Amino acid sequence: MDGFYRKIMSSFVFGDMLVNYLLDGSEHITMQILPLGYEDRVTDEGKILRGDNLVQAKLMGDENPGAYASGLTMRNSRTAEITYFERQEVKRGKEKDDDTITVLTYLTDKRNHSFVNKLEYTTGDKAVKISTAFRNDSDKSVSLEYLSSFSVGDITPFEKGDAYETLDVYRIRSKWSYEGRLVRESVEDLQLEPSWAYWHPSVCKYGQRGSMPVKEFFPFGAVYDKKNNVTWAAQLAIEGSWEMEIYRRDSALCLSGGLADREFGHWFKNIEPGESFETPHALLTVCADGIDTACQRLTSYGKRYLEDGPKCEKDMPVMFNEYCTTWGLPSHENIEGIVNALRGHGLSYFVVDCGWFVEEGKHWGDGMGDYIPSDRLFPKGIKYTADMIKTAGMKPGIWFEIDNVGRDAHVYEREELLLKRDGYVLGTTNRRFFDMRNPKTREYLEEKVIGQLREYGFEYMKMDYNDTIGIGCDGAESLGEGLRQDREASVDFVRHIKEELPDLILENCASGGHKLEPLMMSICQMASFSDAHECENIPVVALNLHRTILPAQSQIWAVIRRDDTIKRIAYTMANTFLGRMCLSGDVKELSAEQWDKIDEGIAFYKEIAPIIKDGFTYFDEHRGASERYLTGYQAMVRVGDNMKEAYACIHVFNECKDVIRMKLPEDCPKNIKSIYRGTDIRAEIENDTIVITPSDDMEALAIHFTAG
Prior knowledge:
Blueprint: E1 6-14, E2 17-24, E3 29-35, E4 57-59, H1 78-81, E5 84-92, E6 100-108, E7 113-122, E8 128-136, E9 142-155, E10 167-173, E11 181-186, E12 202-208, E13 220-225, E14 230-236, E15 242-248, E16 253-259, H2 262-265, E17 269-271, E18 276-278, E19 282-287, H3 291-299, H4 303-307, E20 319-321, H5 323-326, H6 332-342, E21 349-352, H7 382-391, E22 395-400, E23 404-406, E24 420-421, E25 424-425, E26 431-433, H8 439-456, E27 460-463, H9 479-500, E28 505-508, H10 518-523, E29 526-528, H11 538-544, E30 554-560, H12 566-575, E31 580-585, H13 592-613, E32 615-623, E33 632-640, E34 645-652, E35 660-663, E36 671-677, E37 682-686, E38 689-693, E39 699-706
Parallel strand pairs: 20-21, 20-31, 21-22, 22-27, 27-28, 28-29, 29-30, 30-31
Antiparallel strand pairs: 1-2, 2-3, 4-9, 5-6, 6-7, 7-8, 8-18, 8-19, 9-16, 9-17, 10-11, 10-13, 12-15, 13-14, 14-19, 15-16, 23-26, 24-25, 32-33, 33-34, 34-39, 35-38, 36-39, 37-38
């Protein structure tokens, strides 16, 4: 736009990233983030720029955005237009070992409303953490209808004009048992090119409404400049409704995200005089590389939380979960038989899954909530079973669905403990939902969850969550705010469990992978990767998730059946090399030959566990579009952080008879230490290439490399 002016107001070097705060002539401030060393490539030549505010917000009563944007976006409303830069502060950690830098950027709308954008960076990180706070210092109550956690603009700064045919957008889709599908679309296909007048905004807005934050999309978004090989990527740490927005009204794209707004998520929040509100945080990164590097830069932020976990987790032990053995009818008798079959096979955890509370003649899926151990299934009490598991050298675990209530449970009728919408108890076909904000609910769950974990001596808890609240609930000024408060209370209760039982190992499960986001992953040691229990597409989902969570936290099913061939067993075991190994299935009925192949797989997993925990994944995917009817092959190489060890895992699907050639990364050692397989599939090293010769459909091969 003629006369548009901006200058660099401040700059910060955070590792290999450069963050610039750009101030324009209207006192609006834009965040620009670049790979360090790319600053000389920045150009404004041929561009039409309107600027974009660091804080995107909308107060009730302020004008909606113009240019046909109402209903499309709430960005650049009147609130954002009259919010101006005030000052910036930089704070450094006060403690000796605290090397965190915090940049606080203050903005005001000159109506005694202030905003603070907080950016945190700790030495060694590959991403920054960002949130936004609003404070009402006026003498009147106001209502927020929208407040972004982050907003980064000026994408891409490296090309002249409108950067046509330069930018691609990445999103990660998700559905039940098919988590983590990466989707790449061009700016042109998404109609994110500017109009001839650079006036009407173009928007790609997506997200999730409800209490399963990873049900349709992961809370993630990325933009790739393919001419300059630069990727911007962001991830939200959030347990409820959220939105991501890729926005354009000039020559540059903007990427923002946070809580789902009033139009998208039925959310608004009243802020009284003197009160403040802070958004959930986001993680933001940029790199001079592609999407796989950008994703793993984001996930690497979570390593700090794993370091604070129970000591028994350091070696990523192998576990057994009996769900795919008993299918919701565990008993002392069948667990004792399973435990005896597992002796001597190197397992460390044994999880009693759902159904330990089920009443005779009823289904476990309709009975959660009362959590009274079944006398019929556990005639000597469930503590007797937990002690038996300990005697066998394993830590006992147990399943709870903390937030939800089944229709056959007695507590299903205790409406005072349950969420409501429009005055009615909020329910789905088989479930209702505890109101996690209610002190009486918390008191009830203190007894049922924390009390029983402590009383019976369980050392591991699988926390499941098998339905969604939807748009929200009563108890606040808006349905969306009711949902936000309930989810915040739920997370606080999980934190309380950790405070009460600090050595407890926590598993995050939500119909498999519907809560695989940074907030829950920061307070759990691991997560159920998916409900794909025995599917052939398990390796596809498991590798997808390397872009969304740490492999060290991705618990993958290895369900072994009595009629499985050695080929099938090797395929199943190799799946778990993409994350954490969790066995299940017909272990009491397996032959010695079958156990030999399982034991070999367990030994291989333990060899490579340090690389799974601390490494970088290189993807080599050559499969068909379908994630159910698999063709082609999928391969990956994960190189340890010390670059002295690596492993490759190759899954051959259908219609893949040709020799596979996979070039090894430059930092990958080339000496083969061991190979795991169940067929005649062959592997050789030719210079810097693995040459794989398949022998059959649906087979797998894994190779452990060392430097010496």
